[in-house]
Amino acid sequence: MIIYTCITNDYVELPTKMPVGPLYICFGISNPPKPWTGGLLPDLGDPVRTSRYAKILCPFQQDSVYVDASKLHLLNDSFIELSESILNENKFFVMQHPHKYTYLEECAEYVSRGWVDEETLINFTEQVKDAGFDFSKFFSPLCTILWRKESTPMDKLWWDWYNKGGIRDQLAFSVSLQLSKMKFEYEPARDLLNNFTDAEPDGVWWNNRAGDYQYCDKKDPDDFVNKLCEITGLKKMFRYRAAVFTKTGQLVLGDRGKYWPKDYHSLDVISGRRNH
Fold first, then answer.
1. Averages of pLDDT over each 10 residues, the chain, 276 residues
2. Is 245 helix (H, G, I), strand (E, B) or coil?
3. Element (H, E) at 267
């Protein structure tokens, strides 16, 4: 089994104490420390986009597990056993995001965090609509780890859509998954992750570097979501669950019912039904 990752611009330090057994490959570092073997990445002019190249376009025709570099230090023997079990039973296995975002919520997250601008997402939405994408069946992935028996026909489609929809890869993943009619299995992320780490809301799994880049101004996505509703035909009341923490003003999107304990913070619901 191959475990691989991608690192550009010294994003994180590559851990060297890894579980025994798999072959470890790091794309983006030509001469990494043992037990890692180096792999090349094309220079795409943006370190984040470059780092997605081998993640999306899986270069292997054997059992492989892609893991985001910021999570590598959390891998252990239990993870290896879990991955072997998954790959013995599945050709392609992914995790469902704890927030179970709808299409509206996924896009709103990008705008609110300054990851992708509104115009790019509007154009992307119009293109996937023309391609026949069913917005009501959006699957919300957590692409931190991907289990594959081999490269898949979906990979190329994912890469093509990724280059149309901004720097985040989840939106293009879900679109490609549906349009390619790729067969896959999944499990809710926290249920799976808790087999080898702590993925509760304050758990160590979330306490590391992730998404700390910005490509545009951060904006309140409410008006933008209204525009998406017009294009997609999705109803805001049922497909856009938004709230803010009353103490911090932080926007919270998606399913809060299981992810946030009721007493975690007081929330002010601004859209959708109260699912606490």
1. 96 96 97 96 96 98 97 98 96 96 97 97 98 98 97 96 96 98 96 96 87 92 97 95 82 77 62 50
2. strand
3. strand 267-271
- Alpha carbon distance 263, 247 (integer Å): 13
How many Å apart are CA 166 and CA 184, to the nearest integer?
25
Domains of the chain: 2-233 (3.90.550)
- The closest alpha carbon to 185, from 90, 250, 106, belongs to 90
Which pLDDT score is estimated for 262?
54
- Per the DSSP assignment, residues forming a β-bridge with 66 are 4, 146
According to DSSP H, which parts of 1-57 are helical? 47-51, 53-56
Predicted pLDDT at 276: 39
Rounded distance, CA 162 to CA 155, Å? 10
The DSSP secondary structure of 58-99, one letter per residue, reads ---SS-EEEE-GGGGGG--HHHHHHHHHHHHH-SEEEEE-TT
DSSP state of 231: H
